[in-house]
Amino acid sequence: MSQKEEKRLQIEKSFLVQNRDILLSILKSLSPEEKKEIISSLKEQVKEEFTVPISVFRNNKLSCLETIVKYLKENYDLKLIKISKLLNRNSKTIWATYNKAAKKLAKRFIAKEENISIPLSIFKSRKYSVLESVVGYLKEEHELSYHQISELLNRSYRTIATVYRRYRLKK
Prior knowledge:
This protein has 171 residues and is mostly helical. It has helices at residues 3-28, 32-48, 64-75, 80-87, 91-104, 130-141, 146-153, 157-170; strands at residues 51-53, 117-119.
């Protein structure tokens, strides 16, 4: 890692520590009822807003489902049972998927700042495969071309075109 990157990481860490300290001082001044209200509100937002950055899909080793499960487990520290509920999948499937992913790619994902994130809510419907859901979301919500999607997901243009055609047929 270059000195510039190390310096940037140190600044980010100090910024996070300062923000945490400010937040803790504010929380100490609140009444127990206010704290409970804030916590329940945050829990609701977190339930709705789990997202996966598009950058984690740029790997050659993992499938889309493996990528999502590994990212949620390692970056959000979610339990596999919670991931299975979020993705509407069997917990045994998620367990096997995570174990395969961990063997294929031992290192942790480093998510880059991206302007596109994939919401987990698109995976609730089992009507579409994981890749179909991702491609359909990118094509319809972000109006990206097949070429742009293929570069974002590190898949071939033909694969993306075929997957989107299947997605439209199932609609």
